Amino acid sequence: MALRWHQSLTGRVTHSYIPFVGSNITLPRLRCSAISYTRLLLGDTTLNVHMERMGLAESRNCQCGMGIDDEHDFFFECPYHHKFRQLLVESVHDILLTGRKPVASNLSVSLVLAPWTIKSLSRRQCKDILETTFKYIQQAGC
After folding, report:
1. At what angle do helices 31-42 and 123-140 cross, to 10 degrees?
2. How far apart are CA 120 and CA 13, in angstroms?
3. From the first residue on, what is the mean pLDDT of each consecutive set of 10 residues in the chain (142 residues)?
4. In angstroms, what CA-CA distances link 71 with 2, 10, 78, 110?
5. Which residue(s) pair with 68 in the sheet?
6. Residue 72: predicted pLDDT
7. CB atoms within 10 A of CB 18
8. Which in 1, 54, 55, 115 has the greatest CB count within 10 A?
9. Cβ-contact 88, 112 below 8 angstroms
10. What helix, strand, coil percent values describe the chain, rounded to 5?
11. What is the per-residue pLDDT for 92?
């Protein structure tokens, strides 16, 4: 089963976040946040980059007019989410600096969606980053 997961041509977005079969994933308690988070992991969201691919949007552009409406834009660029993003960025930086060994890592979609892919993070740090991500998804509108 694991070999098929690594060799499959489909599910590459999910594979990048969940590279091992049988991985346990923490989901937010709030249903709409859980759905949005799962869709982000699957690469099947209501972001324009995915909607255009399915023929449901005319453009990949974000409604803010400043870039492509994808995961990176949602988490780190779109000005519509600025006030929530500031809390996300500050919280993740604080989390990275806590624990036995501070971790130097750049903010990325992979870090906020699947912190367990950063081997130097502790379980506690991963859990805290996910909680912060879930809160951001909820605040930014799931």
Report:
1. 110
2. 22
3. 68 72 81 93 90 92 92 94 93 89 86 90 93 96 72
4. 27, 19, 10, 10
5. 61
6. 94
7. 20
8. 115
9. yes
10. 60, 0, 40
11. 96
Tokens in use for 136?
Answer: 């951001």
Nearest CA-CA partner of 110 in 59, 72, 70, 58: 72
Tell me the DSSP string of 14-75: HHHH--STT------SSHHHHHHHHHHHHT--SSHHHHHHTTS-S-SB-TTSSSB-SHHIII
Q: How many residues does the chain have?
A: 142
Q: How far apart are CA 74 and CA 80, in angstroms?
A: 9
Per-residue pLDDT, 34 = 94
Any long-range contacts for 118-123 (C-beta under 8 Å, 24+ apart)?
Answer: 121/96
The predicted structure's pLDDT at residue 5: 65
